[in-house]
Design a protein that fits this description.
heterodimer; A: 290 residues; 79% helix; globular; B: 103 residues; 81% helix; flat
Chain lengths: 290, 103
């Protein structure tokens, strides 16, 4: 009975959180309600996190270390996150968003790593779910390394550099990652080394994807990477059968994609122009915008 | 092929939810004015921090002696918290600035 009650409360909290995410996004798109919308979504997130800790598993004494580490992680993250967010200058906001976005992507990638390790050590899983884990890893790590490069570029720490034939290399890497994910899902005995290669290639792809894009186009790219992380979160939600993660992730994934397109329109550019235009004469195009 | 079909049949409710959410996400923000693009991006950034729930689930399910999972899970919790807390605080600061500008 108590267990059932706990699970019901958990699911109700997830529903509440999903509603706050929708309302939050809606209110964030109208000027006078935006601030309230942000707060509402924040409360929803808090409820979802608290409910997961309290009701997801029965609280048992032998897992004290797990709970202690969760609490420690939450405190460390909150202290560092708040400090960084409050200290940053108003003009440096976009790179801060990019940085936090990268953290979310890394979180999704780490979740996939742990789950793959779980599969390696005898956990049974359908190969379809393995694909979900691998896609979470790929998108999460692309988003992480891409966001960090975007952060570095906006901070002025990384210059614009384009590899010769970089676009072709990117396509090869992309096909390689997908091929490897399909291979890993179908092979009978997945090896640990495969996932680290996949991780490495994904990180490299993120770097090469953002590297040639000019600074003026960076907000568009950050928005795109933002929607990537949303998708990675949604894959995690799919994996755990968790509706809050799923709706939150997908909402950001789709809203972020549309927002990216809207931002491009506001700048009088097309999305393909921003992504591919960087190569060849793209440097001048970006300079024109600035 | 069988695997994909199986995945589809087993998770059809979730796939339904995904498709509805995609359209909802598009619809909800379609009228955003250009000045709010960056705050909206930042707010959405905080919302996908919901991935932190996955890292908490890892920590809850990890065996207390599985130190690899515990350590990685701890990092995931820190990263997710950074995303959530940093995201919401940054968005709030941005919107505060907007308020002052309008006055």
């Amino acid at each position: 009975m108590t267990e059932l009650l706990g699970l019901s409360i958990l699911e109700l909290c997830y529903i509440a959180a999903s509603i706050t995410f929708i309302l939050g996004l809606k209110m964030l798109s109208s000027p006078d309600k935006a601030r309230k919308g942000n707060l509402i979504a924040a409360y929803g997130m808090g409820i979802a996190i608290l409910a997961t800790i309290l009701f997801k598993e029965e609280l048992t004494a032998d897992k004290w270390l797990n709970y202690a580490l969760i609490l420690a992680g939450l405190i460390v993250g909150t202290v560092i996150g708040t400090r960084m967010a409050l200290k940053v200058k108003m003009t440096a906001m976009p790179q801060m968003v990019s940085f936090f976005n990268g953290m979310g992507g890394a979180c999704a990638a780490v979740i996939s790593l742990v789950e793959f390790d779980h599969v390696m050590h005898g956990g049974t899983i359908s190969s379809g779910m393995l694909v979900v884990i691998l896609l979470g890893l790929i998108i999460g790590s692309v988003s992480f390394s891409g966001s960090i490069i975007a952060y570095g570029k906006l901070e002025g720490k990384i210059g614009d550099k384009a590899l010769p034939a970089g676009q072709i290399l990117n396509i090869i890497l992309l096909l390689g990652m997908l091929g490897m994910a399909i291979f890993m899902a179908n092979t009978a005995e997945p090896q640990a080394i495969y996932i680290y290669i996949l991780l490495g290639v994904s990180l490299l792809y993120g770097v090469l994807f953002v590297m040639p894009i000019g600074g003026a186009d960076m907000p568009v790219v950050i928005s795109l990477l933002n929607s990537f992380t949303g998708m990675a979160a949604a894959f995690g939600g799919f994996l755990y059968g968790n509706q809050a993660m799923l709706t939150g992730g997908i909402l950001v994934g789709s809203a972020g994609t549309i927002l990216t397109v809207l931002m491009c329109k506001a700048m009088n550019r097309s999305l393909t122009n921003v992504i591919i235009g960087s190569f060849g004469g793209g440097g001048t195009a970006a300079a024109d915008d600035g | 092929m069988v695997n994909i079909l199986q995945l589809f049949v087993e998770n059809r409710e979730f796939i339904f939810l995904i498709i509805v959410s995609i359209f909802l996400g598009i619809e909800v923000i379609s009228n955003v004015p250009a000045v709010l693009h960056t705050p909206l991006m930042s707010g959405a950034n905080a919302i996908h921090g919901v991935v932190i729930i996955g890292s908490i689930i890892i920590m809850l399910e990890a065996h207390p002696t599985n130190y690899l999972a515990l350590i990685l899970g701890f990092f995931a919790v820190v990263l997710g918290t950074l995303n959530v807390v940093g995201g919401f605080v940054v968005t709030n600061r941005m919107l505060e600035m907007f308020k002052k500008k309008e006055k």
